[in-house]
Structures are given as structure tokens and as C-alpha cells.
């Protein structure tokens, strides 16, 4: 959905600035493609953490940082001569379709891990179950890594004492991770908080207004920039208020 929203905003911006036909050049084409890949990368990070793979999510962050740098280089360094025009309404329509698809897509949970793949012996199953538990506690449920390791170690000691398998003693790993997380305080990393993305996006309309305030651009661009600025501030305030209420509820 974020890609669709960005595409709709950019195409609407170009529509106001240059008219119905948008000139496409190498700088804009490559820079915009890298920007879209960065937005997709953010969703990949969320997916990896939700799937219990927080370490893989850290590698994805490096890819996003590289995409941002390459995007900036593309916008500033690649040729700007026109390759071909595209109709702005068509791009706006594609963006709206992506927004609707993202809003209505199925976010149902993935099938639970069985932890009983063919060919694995009981010890391998137990080790994998414990690794999944640690990853789910840290990634999906936002426990600090130290606490996730402590709870996993406690489960390992209990299994060693009882001699039972994790499935027999605790049940499916997703269910057990959820039960543990219900009694723990959670800490979402700052780079995953929605308010952080809001502050980053806030710099875009602020920068444009600061550098174009005396340029005599189309009034619609100034109106759109102010609208984006106000919308982003409202969105950030909502996210901060929700985070504050959730923190107070955990402490209570």
C-alpha cells in the first residue's frame, strides 16, 4: 500500500507541475524505482520479524540503506533528457489500485510451524523449536533480545528436566510464544516504529517548501505540500498517542 500511496502522490505532483503528460528520464526512472524498492524493503523487514527472523531483518536494513544512497545518486547524477512521456492519470490510477489492493489484501497468519519435518530426529526438532521460540519472541512480539534468550533458556532447561519434546510439553511454538509475550513488556525498535517513518517523510514537504517558497511554482504544488505536511503531522501524533497509551497500559 505504501508503494501505491507514494506513486499516487508523485504522479499527482507531476500532474500539477507539468501537465497531463509526464516526461520520463533516466534520473527520475531509476531514482523512483529505487525509492519504491526501499518502501518494499521496509515491508520485507516487518515480514521477517513477524516470521521470527529478526537477524535476517537486520541484513535487510543494510539493503534499504544502500537503496536510499543509490536512489539519491540516481536522482542527482543520471541524465535528465526526456526518454518518453507517460500520462499522469494512468500512473495515478495504478497507484490507487495498489492502495486498494494493499488495504484489502489478506493478512491472515501464516500456517503454524509443525516442528516435525520428515527426516529430523527428536533432538533436531527440539533445537529448531527453541530457535523458533527465540526468534518469535524477539521478532514478532518485540521482546528485548536478552529477555527472549532468557525465556528460551528456561524452556530448554525445563525440557531437559522432563525429557519431553517441546510439542508435547508446550504445544505449537507460535502459541507458546504468544502466551509468554502476554506477560512481558514489549519494546519495538525505534527503526520499526511507524512514527519514525512519519518523521522521515515529514522532511520531504518541509524541504520542498523551504527551497521553493520564493520560486513562483504552481499554487497547487504549495497546497499539496502543505496538505502532506499537515497529514503527516496528524498521523505522527496519532501514532505517538497510541504508543503512549499502550505503554501506560503495560505499566498498569
Give a quick set of tags describing it.
single chain; 10 helices; mainly alpha; about 250 residues; two-stranded antiparallel sheet; 2 domains
Summary, kept brief:
This protein is 73% helix and 3% strand.
For the largest sheet, list the strands in their spatial order: 1-2
What is the N-to-C order of secondary-structure elements (H for helix, E for strand)? HEHHEHHHHHHH
- The low-pLDDT segments are 111-120
Using only CA atoms, what is the Rg? 23 Å
Helical fraction equals over 70%
Kindly estimate the percentage of residues that lie in beta strands according to DSSP: under 5%
| Sheet/helix structural class | mainly alpha
Q: Number of helical segments?
A: 10
Oligomeric state of the chains in view:
single chain
**Total strand segments:** 2
Described by the principal axes of the CA atoms, the overall outline is elongated
Average pLDDT confidence is 80
Please outline the major beta sheet.
2 strands, antiparallel
Number of domains: 2
Task: Calculate the terminal CA-CA distance, rounded to whole Å.
Answer: 35 Å
Give a written overview of the molecule.
The chain is mainly alpha-helical and 252 residues long. The chain has 2 domains: 162 residues, no CATH class; 60 residues. It is 73% helix and 3% strand. The chain is built from 10 helices and 2 strands; from the N terminus they run αβααβααααααα. A two-stranded antiparallel sheet has the order 1-2. α1 runs antiparallel to α4 and α9 packs antiparallel against α10. The longest helix is centred in the C-terminal third of the chain and has 33 residues. The two termini are 35 Å apart. About 4% of the residues have low confidence.
Amino acid at each position: 500500500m505504501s508503494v501505491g500511496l507514494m506513486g499516487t502522490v508523485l504522479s499527482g505532483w507531476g500532474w500539477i507541475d507539468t501537465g497531463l503528460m509526464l516526461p520520463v528520464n533516466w534520473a527520475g526512472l531509476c531514482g523512483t524505482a529505487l525509492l519504491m524498492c526501499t518502501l518494499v524493503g521496509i515491508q520485507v523487514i516487518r515480514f521477517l520479524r513477524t516470521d521470527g527472523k529478526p537477524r535476517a531483518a537486520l541484513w535487510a536494513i543494510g539493503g534499504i540503506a544502500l537503496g536510499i544512497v543509490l536512489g539519491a545518486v540516481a536522482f542527482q547524477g543520471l541524465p535528465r533528457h526526456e526518454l518518453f512521456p507517460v500520462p499522469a492519470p494512468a500512473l495515478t490510477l495504478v497507484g490507487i489500485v495498489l492502495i486498494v489492493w494493499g488495504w484489502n489484501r489478506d493478512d491472515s497468519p501464516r500456517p503454524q510451524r509443525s516442528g516435525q519435518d520428515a527426516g529430523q530426529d527428536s533432538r533436531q526438532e527440539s533445537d529448531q523449536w527453541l530457535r523458533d521460540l527465540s526468534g518469535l519472541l524477539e521478532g514478532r512480539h518485540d521482546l528485548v533480545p536478552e529477555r527472549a534468550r532468557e525465556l528460551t533458556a528456561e524452556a530448554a532447561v525445563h525440557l531437559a528436566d522432563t525429557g519431553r519434546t517441546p510439542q508435547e510439553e508446550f504445544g505449537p511454538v507460535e502459541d507458546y510464544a504468544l502466551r509468554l509475550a502476554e506477560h512481558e513488556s514489549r519494546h519495538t525498535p525505534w527503526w520499526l516504529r511507524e512514527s519514525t517513518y512519519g518523521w522521515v517523510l515529514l522532511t520531504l514537504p518541509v524541504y520542498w517548501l523551504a527551497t521553493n517558497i520564493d520560486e513562483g511554482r504552481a499554487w497547487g504544488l504549495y497546497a499539496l505540500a502543505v496538505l502532506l505536511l499537515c497529514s503527516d503531522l496528524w498521523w505522527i501524533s496519532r501514532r505517538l498517542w497510541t504508543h503512549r497509551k499502550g505503554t501506560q497500559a503495560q505499566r498498569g
